[in-house]
Design goal:
The complex is a heterotrimer of chains A (393), B (302) and C (306). Chain A has eleven helices and 16 strands. Chain A has 393 residues and is of the alpha/beta class. Chain A folds into two domains: 244 residues, Thiamin diphosphate (ThDP)-binding fold, Pyr/PP domains (Rossmann fold), CATH 3.40.50; 133 residues, Rossmann fold (3-Layer(aba) Sandwich), CATH 3.40.50.920. In chain A, helix 1 packs across helix 2, helix 5 crosses helix 7 and helix 8 crosses helix 11. Chain B is of the alpha/beta class. Chain B has two domains: 184 residues, 3-Layer(aba) Sandwich (Pyruvate-ferredoxin Oxidoreductase, domain 3); 70 residues, Alpha-Beta Plaits (2-Layer Sandwich). Helix content of chain B is 26%, strand content 23%. Chain B contains eight helices and 13 strands. In chain B, helix 3 crosses helix 6. Chain C has eleven helices and ten strands. Chain C has a single domain, classed as Rossmann fold, CATH 3.40.50. Chain C is an alpha/beta fold. The chains are: A alpha/beta (393), B alpha/beta (302), C alpha/beta (306). Chains in contact: A-B, A-C, B-C. The interface between B and C is large, with 50 and 48 residues. Strand 9 of chain A pairs parallel with strand 4 of chain C, so a sheet runs across the interface.
């Protein structure tokens, strides 16, 4: 059934369709509507779950972790400061290998305090052991929440997963979304039956034990291996979803008009969507530009990015966050993946910080800059601050 | 460079001793480091501490595996821990015990020194705290630091922590222990020390997420209820002696035992009479049972 | 008839081999509470001594399922566990959080207050040894006046803690939860009765249990119970319970012993001046008066409005 809904609604609706057992959540702008919609679903009797209206994000993640460790399918959602408050417990979720799913509405992390789109909330959590997916429209929000449970609960994975959506640009924007019927969702997503972590008096187990150095290094290896292994599962789940529902997101990355492209721009989140239009415009002008939508930062699509670099003359990475003293996090990741695999120019474009609109002209600038780099074979400027007063771009 | 390993129990001050030794060596113009075994051991449990001394700056940040000297603060540890593990040939073991060095069979090609540090401490400090006395014994047995330096080390570390007056007393204890320490060549062990096997699963065997799953391993049971594999009886200094004739089966000791190592048992083949049995594999010797027993049926003895 | 020592089963659901210090009050509390609660119980412990002495991988003293996440979230985690069990058809399983005084009075207060307000169906046990013992005896909001801790040392100018013990049980009582009780390791009958009562109720149940700590309080290991007794007999610790807010003092010392008789057994109070002891005695007298007045006011709570 197609309806015109917000990204937040799509996320809440998908959680309902995933038949999550336990939701523990705390409202924060711009995630608030996710919590409100779940409240409505529960109070209207159409969502059968234990809904814990906790007093903080710290407790939200704590209760979610413990519910998952007990053996239930658990869901929460947050943004910005809330994610930062959860930070400590994020590591517990992955360390215990709990397949929690959490939409994160990417918003500026203070200071300065703001409520608009920025990815500096999620970027510090790259090392938390969560699978990190980034989406570009509300349909993808809905589809990824459902896919996330399939990926996270796969025995080869067993890791928590965040579905990142841009503040307001998706969370508060309505667009048509094909909302899944319950029987379709059930067909795609079977119920959760953990074999590795549960708290059941009939089969006692300790989950979260004080552990000396003799064991932790092996545990870390296992988690790293599971994260690597999730790449295959992400592709499989994508393909199965595409076969069942006709929507194919390409797996770890999606390439757009990359066939004979001379330059490629790597994007995260909603800027991907705008960039598609820019690519079409520039293509119409005869410029050979292509787009790579990076759908996952964890696991990092190393092979896919290396393949892109092998086919183009210059590569650029868009970032909506800055790691002070280095550059954009997505750029750091891409450059690291490409080390030793390419000698083409690589440049970083910072735009949309603090929720500033990223315009067609901004993205055009990025592509034209990349074309110049491709032609010269040199990086004109490594870190380009787009549309920043007093800074030459 | 020389390296020292201290064996003690949580609460005996092994770490302070290691630090005072480092300070002592430093006072003689050396570079010295001291550190604990990085754990979360509780009072009474076997613990380790280390001192490393060299004439130049020490860069090595590893634990000590092949010590030149070993210090044992409590001779009951000799049965629980392989105190000579990794000890270099020609190395010295300094043990707080009432025994003579010849009575200890700790291995060949080493020297064994003994001192009744507990006796010294009781005499001088009025308390069985041996971490200062043993340093005097160390100086005498190894010659690695002078007695003067040990006193400086004690004044520095103990003085700063518990006050100068008490530090001075501890110096006197160390000196007394220095005078009473005797050494002898090590005797061969009567039997090899049996090392407890350890469960060290590889990345394929380790349960994912660090879950504590019940299973049998090469090192015994693991998982829920498996702490029984950890015999805490070795922590004990005082032992409960039970006179079941006096027991009225009130079960107070059974209730108050922090370990839960007391069981109510039929006594004297009389089905109406019950007494208690204490599992000494686990008894830490806290003495609560004896203190709470209304009929004084339990007595704590060394 | 309520449960007594002799009714407890022989089997320990918290086994020997645990690594608590000799004479640990908390170990006595936990081991016996588990005998009352039984096998159909799931445990949460935050970061505290119990986390470490109750399990060190791969060994676990608990025979029942056992869970730890972090320090400040006992009530939130226990909530998550209970709600999950509800969805898994195990509504009858008891969920218990065993937190210390630091994890309750201080860092865990926010999650605790929220779970109490939501009347979550869990039992929260605060074992109170009046300082952060796991990290090496630092003061908490529950440390009494005058006590030495490593962060309230007996210095040349300031000797011991200058502030008074926070009354956590009364804070929880103000949340209007079904059951609030205090107990002591020194009063087995009283404690067992309260645990049994809590077990058989629904909703949020809170027990604050005074648990002596020989290591942190600097007392000989054999007088753990005696000290817990003297705490009650001196009025330093009030034994009460409140069912649906109706507060009742469950043990009233015939004549309160001077607080000095309690203090002198413990090294943590050794440095206290006469003036400090007088201040603490005064605090105890006032507390006892307040507790008695509260009992009077709250005992018959809703009879007048029924």
């Amino acid at each position: 059934m197609k309806r015109v809904v917000t990204g937040n609604y799509a996320a809440a609706f998908a959680a309902m369709r995933a038949r999550v057992n336990v939701v523990a959540a705390f409202p924060i702008t711009p995630q608030t509507f996710i919590v409100e919609h779940i409240s409505e679903f529960v109070n209207d009797g159409i969502m059968d779950c234990e809904f814990i209206r906790v007093e903080s994000e710290h407790s939200a993640m704590s209760a979610t972790v413990s519910a998952s460790a007990t053996g239930a399918r658990a869901f929460t959602a947050t943004a910005s400061q809330g994610l930062a408050l959860m930070h400590e417990i994020l590591f517990t979720a992955s360390g215990m290998r709990l397949p929690i799913v959490m939409p994160v509405v990417n918003r500026t992390l203070a200071a300065p305090i703001g409520i608009w789109a920025e990815m500096n909330d999620v970027m510090p959590e790259r090392d938390a052991g969560w699978i990190l997916a980034f989406v570009e429209d509300n349909q993808e929000v809905h589809d990824m929440v459902l896919q996330a449970y399939r990926i996270a609960e796969d025995n080869r994975v067993l890791l928590p997963m965040m579905v990142n959506l841009d503040a307001f640009i998706l969370s508060h924007t309505v667009e048509p979304v094909d909302l899944m019927e319950p029987e379709d969702a059930d067909r795609f997503l079977p119920s959760y039956k953990p074999e590795h972590a549960y708290l059941d008096p009939e089969r006692p187990m300790g989950v979260g034990i004080f552990t000396p150095p003799e064991y932790i290094q092996e545990e870390r290896y296992q988690t790293h291996a599971a994260m690597e292994g999730s790449k295959q599962v992400i592709k499989e789940v994508n393909d199965e979803f595409a076969k069942m529902f006709g929507r194919d997101y390409g797996g770890l990355v999606e390439e757009y008009r990359m066939d004979d492209a001379e330059v490629a721009l790597l994007t995260l989140g909603t800027v991907t969507s705008t960039a598609r239009e820019v690519v079409d415009n520039l293509r119409a002008e005869g410029k050979k530009v292509g787009l790579v939508k990076v759908r996952f930062l964890r696991p990092y699509p190393t092979d896919e990015i290396r393949s892109v670099a092998s086919r183009v003359k210059a590569i650029g990475i868009y970032d909506r966050a800055i790691s002070y003293g280095v550059g954009g996090p997505a750029y750091i990741e891409a450059r690291s993946a490409l080390y030793g695999h390419t000698d083409i120019p690589i440049s970083n474009y910072l735009a949309g910080i603090g929720g500033r609109d990223v315009m067609l002209s901004d993205i055009e600038f990025m592509f034209n800059d990349l074309l110049k780099n491709a032609e010269s074979g040199k990086v004109r400027k490594e870190l380009v601050w787009i549309n920043t007063r007093g800074v030459e771009q | 460079m020389f390296e020292v390993r201290f064996h003690g129990r949580g609460g005996q001050g092994a770490v302070m001793a290691a630090q005072a030794l480092a300070s002592a060596a430093f006072s003689e113009g050396n570079y010295a480091v001291a550190f604990p075994y990085f754990g979360a051991e509780r009072r009474g449990a076997p613990v380790l501490a280390f001192t490393r001394v060299d004439s130049k700056k020490i860069y090595r940040k590893t634990q000590v595996y092949e010590p030149d000297f070993v210090v044992v603060l409590d001779d009951s540890l000799l049965e629980m821990v392989d105190v000579t593990e990794g000890l270099k040939d020609g190395g010295v073991v300094v043990v707080n015990t009432r025994k003579k060095p010849e009575e200890l069979a700790l291995g060949e090609n080493i020297k064994v020194a003994t001192v009744d540090a507990t006796g010294v401490a009781l005499e001088v400090l009025g308390q069985p705290i041996t971490n200062s006395s043993i340093l005097g014994a160390f100086a005498k047995a190894t010659g690695a630091v002078s007695m003067d330096a040990i006193e400086k080390g004690i004044m520095d570390i103990f003085g700063n922590k518990i006050g100068m007056k008490i530090a001075e007393k501890n110096c006197r204890a160390a000196k007394a222990a220095y005078d009473r320490t005797i050494s002898a060549d090590g005797r061969p062990r009567e039997k090899e020390f049996e090392k407890k096997p350890k469960w060290l699963p590889d990345v394929k065997e380790l349960p994912i997420g660090g879950a504590g799953v019940k299973m049998e391993t090469n090192a015994g049971m693991i998982g829920p209820g498996s702490f029984l594999e950890n015999k805490t009886g070795g922590w004990r200094t005082f032992m409960p002696i039970v006179e079941n004739d006096k027991c009225v089966a009130c079960q107070l000791c059974w209730y108050f035992c922090p370990e839960g190592c007391i069981t109510m048992v039929p006594y004297d083949n009389n089905r109406f009479k019950k007494g208690i049995a204490i599992d000494l594999d686990y008894c830490k010797g806290c003495g609560i049972c004896a203190h709470e027993c209304p009929t004084h049926a339990i007595e704590m003895k060394r | 008839m309520s449960i007594g020592i002799k009714d407890l089963p022989e089997e320990n659901l918290f086994t020997a081999g645990h690594t608590a210090c000799a004479g640990c009050g908390a170990a006595i509390v936990v081991r016996n509470i588990m005998k009352v609660l039984g096998e159909n119980t799931v445990i949460y412990t935050p970061a505290n001594c119990l986390l470490v002495f109750g399990a060190t991988y791969p060994h676990i003293a608990w025979k029942v399922p056992y869970h730890h996440v972090a320090f400040e979230n006992t009530a939130a985690c226990a909530t998550g566990m209970k709600r999950a069990l509800n969805t898994l058809g195990k509504e009858d399983t008891t969920v218990v959080g065993f937190a210390g005084d630091g994890g309750t009075a201080d860092i865990g207060m926010q999650a605790l207050s929220a779970a109490a307000e939501r009347n979550e169906d869990i039992i929260y046990v605060m074992y109170d040894n009046e300082a952060y013992m796991n990290t090496g005896i630092q003061r908490s909001g529950s440390t009494p006046y005058g006590a030495w801790t490593t962060t309230t040392p007996a210095g040349k100018v300031i000797k011991g803690k200058e502030l008074f013990k926070k009354d956590v049980a009364q804070i929880i009582l103000a949340h209007n939860v079904p059951y609030v009780a205090t107990a002591s390791v020194g009063y087995p009958q009283d404690m067992l009765k309260k645990v049994e009562k809590a077990k058989n109720m629904k909703g949020f149940r809170f027990l604050q249990i005074y648990s002596s700590c020989p290591t942190g309080w600097r007392h000989p290991t054999d007088i753990t119970v005696e000290i817990a007794n003297k705490a009650v007999e001196s009025g330093m610790w009030t034994l009460f319970e409140a069912v649906d807010g109706r507060m009742e003092i469950t043990h009233r010392p015939k004549e309160r012993i001077p607080v000095q008789d309690y203090l002198k057994l413990q090294g943590r109070f050794r440095h206290m001046s006469e003036e400090q002891i007088r201040i603490l005695q005064n605090w105890v007298d006032k507390k006892w008066d307040r507790d008695s007045r509260l009992e009077k006011a709250l005992k018959m709570l809703d009879e007048s409005t029924d």
